[in-house]
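Researcher: Please translate sequence to C-alpha cells.
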Amino acid sequence: MASTVGQQMKQIGEAVNGYINIRYDKLSTLSNAAGTGTDPGPRTCSGSVCEITYQTLINEGLLPSAYTGTNANKSSYKIILKRDGTSPNYVINGLITTSTAWIEGGKTRYDLLGKAMQTAGIDSGMTRTTSNAFGYGGQWSETSANFNNITSAGQLAFRVGFNSALYSIYLRRDGTLPMTGNLNMGGQSVYNAQNITANGTTTTGILKTNAAATVGTTLNVAGVTTLRSDLNVYGNGQIYGNLNSSNTVSGKTVISRGDTYTQNWFRILGDGGLYFEKYGGRLTMLDDNTISAGESNLKTNSVLYATEISSGNINSAGTVTAERVDVVDYVWASRKISSNYVYSTGNLDADGQINANTFVYINGKANVGWGCSPNGLQGRTSEGAILSCVNGVWRGSTGSPVIRTASASAYRFPEAVASCAGSEKVVGGGGQCNTAEGYVWLTVSRPNGDNSWYAGCDTTKNITATITVYAICQ
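Model: Translation complete:
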C-alpha cells in the first residue's frame, strides 16, 4: 500500500505543477476563481497564498473525472500555493500534504512514509514535527510558517512549483524557468528571436542571414558555398581542390606550380608574348602575319605545318628530307617518288600501270546487288570476297554453290529458315521432315527473300516432328 500512496502523491503533484504552468497569470496576481467560466477553479487567495483542491485539477482536465481525492490510506490532500519574489518576475512555490498523519496502533509509521517517498520521488517528503517537513534524502525542508498545511508529524508531503524538481520540465515565456535540459522543438520553428547566444556548437541545415554575418575565427564549410555577390579576401586564399570559374579570372600575376590547361585560346592582350624563363627564348608577333622566335631556333621532331612555306620555289642543292610532307593540292613528279608510305585522302591516278611486289589491300566494302559507279570498280564484301562493278551493280565472282542448313523441332507443324552468308544469294533450296514413325509431309518450301529458304511440315498427327531446311547459296 505504501507504494500506491507514493504513486498517488506523485500523480497529484504532477497535476499541480501543470496547473501552476497554465494559471501562472492568475496565481501571480492572487486572483480568486469561483468555479465557473474559462478559469474554472475553485481557487481561494489571501495575502500571498492561494489554496486549490483536487476538484480544481479535475475541472482543468489535469486529473481524471473519476478521481476521488482520497489516497489508499484514506487520507485527503491539502494544496497550498505561495507567491514569492518581486513583480514582474514572481515565482510560485507550493506544498501538498495529506490531511492526516499515517498512524497505526498509536505509532507514526515513518517506515511506510519512507517507502511511499521512494515511489513518489525527489520532490516528496514527510513531516517529522508539527511545524517542519523534510524532503527526500534531506534535499529540502519547509516550515508551517510558510505553509499552514503542516499540522502534525507523520504527514506525507510533496513540494511543487518553481523550486521543485518536476517543475523544471516546464519552460515559461516570462523567463522565470530557465532550461535545465535540452530543448527539443520536435521539428517546429522559432520565430522573431532577438539574440541567440550559444557557448557550444550550433548545428543547422540551411543557415540564412538577412544581414551581415561575423565569424570570430575559422569558418569551416563541408559543402558548397554560394555567394550572390562579391568575395573580398584581405589575406591569402588557399585552395586544395580545383578553382572553377564560369567567367573571367583576373589578377596581377598568375603563377602555376603545375600544368596550365585551356579549352580555348591563350590570348595575349599587349605587346608581349610567350617568354621561356629558363633559357630566355620567346615567341612574339611582329605584325598581323609574322610570328617571331627572335634569335632562337624553331625545331620540331614531328610535322611543321604552314599554309605557305615559300611564295616561290623551294630550291635545294641536295636532298630535301622529311618524315612527312602534307600537300593541299597535287604532287607532280617527272620521275620517281620514293617513300616508305604514300597516303592520299582523295584519288590516286596513274597514266600507266600500278605495280605491286606484294599484296593489294582493298578496303572498299559493298554487298552483291548494291548499286555502284563507274563500271570497273573493284571492291570486296565484309568477308573478303572480291566484287566488281558491272553495269552499275556490284557482282561477285561465280564460285561453287554452298549449302546452308537449319533445323528445328515442334509439335505437329515444325518450320525453319536456312540463311545464306551476308554476301551470298539464295539460288535454290528444300526441306526434309521426319518423326519417330518415319518421314512426314513437307507442306511448304520456298525462297524467303533473296538470301534464305523457308520450309514447313505437317505430321497430320499430334506428335513432335523435326525439320531440316537446305538453302543453296552462291
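Researcher: Any highlights?
Model: The chain has a mean pLDDT of 84.
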